[in-house]
Amino acid sequence: MVELEEIQSLLIDGFRKYSSACYMLFQVNDAKLAKNWLQGMQSYLAYGVKPSDEWCINLAFSYPGLEKLGLQSTLLSKFPTVFSEGMVSTYRQRILGDIGDSSPECWQWGYGESAVDLLFLVFARNDGLLVKQANKVKQEAKKSGVNWLKTLHTEKLPENKEHFGFRDGISQPKMSGVNGEVDSNGADSKDSIAPGEFILGYPNEHQGSVNRLTVSAASDPSHMLPGVDGLDNAAIRDFSKNGSYLVFRQLRQNVKAFWDFMAKNASKGGESRRAEDYASAIKLASKMVGRWPSGAPLMKFPDIDPVAVQDKAVLNRFSYKHDPSGLSCPIGAHIRRAHPRNAFTFDKSCIPESVRNNKRHRILRRGRSYGKPFSHTMNPVDMIKSREDQVERGLYFICLNADIERQFEFIQQAWLNNKKYGGLYNEVDPLVGKMSVNLKADKGTFTVPADPIRTRYFGLKNFVEMRGGGYFFLPSRAAVDYIIHHGKF
After folding, report:
1. Tally of CB atoms within 10 A around 45
2. What is the spatial distance between Cα 130 and Cα 52, in angstroms, rounded to a whole number?
3. How far apart are CA 365 and CA 416, in angstroms?
4. What secondary structure does DSSP assign to 56-75, as a single string?
5. Phi and psi of 488, rounded to 5°?
């Protein structure tokens, strides 16, 4: 049984009922004062399925933050290297594509003097209440041994779209025992994923393995942490159970450059703005995304956007088994890379294995957009017609997973930034993949398959750039207590 009341609510439902959100970044200066402050903040932390307050908070710690708060070295040493090393090492920059104009030197936070120890994720039912409570947190923090770095404000865009104009948040994993679908017999459906893929301390999709970070019973004399496998008197205690790893990346979106590229390549002369040219530009952008602006998948609607379809279940119930060549949805399309489903085999006998493998690389996305929309209508035609406004906008990409390397980093390196993904050559993800540091030497490419002749588009730019990020640990209720009440000052 998944212990929902021990799990921070961000893991369960993403706080979608709260229309307003911001992310507050802090550094720890005085561990003792900081712990006293965190103890007072505990009553605002939301756990379980249905937080009832007008506003609430979730809390995550970076590895340096846990160090500063005095977590014992024997426990710190058990964290995976990817977490202790962080996002800005030379190796991680290379595999994540954080180079060139996305390198940490270009970030607004998360690197050097702006490295983050504590991440507060604040949610409220309206903007006024959010601002009031965020300011209260900031003021209390001034005398509490922590240094406020900045507050990242989010923007709720019309029609649940992201800044390029496409509906977002459609495809989300369902966890067994939490929000997974069940069949007529009450058993988990084949589409549900083991909770251990996202929540530590539970069996995952890899032969039921369980990820744990444990301490000795002597290090937990008050029995704040659960025992392993429910044994309260066990010699070891489970610090990580009901926690998760949180990946945070601020992604700046260049909306004007994105739609300029589509418009230029959709019209033969590069300047025409006829109705058919607008339609061709939208179709090309949809080929790169794998969905139409409405969210409708190309696999079901390859030729036209059925704007009226809104049911998430309908929009997400498809596979690639009938499209091995990418004639409906290109092999290199963003959604086909980020979530391949059964795309790695079209042999019916191997499809179940392909689906099982894909389950081991899923993530829970919890991000939100920031910055004013490029066009208040969110209509691609209006975006093509609009002039550059120099406003920064983008996505606060936030995801949760039990294994950063096997899940988030695998997707980023093996699927999004892989130039030979699915048999392609010299192509990365057209939306978020890193084209090259030197686009003159290595222009971005995207292929749209067709019978008999494919179309290749050249000169893609990096439409998305990194502007900040970090790896964090999202602890359980018991682990938050342990962090606050144990360790050296």
Report:
1. 18
2. 15
3. 16
4. EEEEEE-HHHHHHTT--HHH
5. -85, 150
Confidence of residue 268 (pLDDT cuts 50, 70, 90): low
Mean pLDDT within 176-186 = 62
* 223-256: b (≥16 Cβ within 10 Å) or e: ebbbbbeeeeeeebbbbbbbbbbbbbbbbbbbbb
Q: Which of 160, 172, 412 is nearest to 293 (CA)?
A: 160
pTM, to two decimals? 0.94
Rounded Cα distance, 134 and 121, in Å: 10
**Under a CB-based contact definition with an 8 Å cutoff, are residues 190 and 397 in contact?**
no
Q: How many C-beta neighbours within 10 Å does residue 456 have?
A: 9
| Distance set, CA 418 to CA 97, 223, 286 (Å) | 10, 46, 21
* β-pairing verdict for 394-401 and 244-253: antiparallel
Bigger pLDDT: 323 vs 436: 323
Cα–Cα dist 335/193, whole Å: 19
Sort strands 118-124 and 236-238 into parallel, antiparallel or unpaired: unpaired
Q: How big is the CA angle at 408 (ends 407 and 409), to the nearest 5 degrees?
A: 100
Q: What are phi and psi of 415, to 5 degrees?
A: -115, -50
* Maximum separation of any 2 CA atoms in the chain, in Å: 75
Q: Going by C-beta distance under 8 Å and a sequence separation of 6 or more, which residues neighbour residue 334? A: 288, 289, 290, 429, 430, 431, 432
Task: For 327-357, write each residue's pLDDT tens digit.
Answer: 999 999 999 999 998 876 555 555 566 777 8
Distance, CA of 98 to CA of 435 (rounded, Å): 11
Angstrom distance (rounded) from CA 288 to CA 334: 6
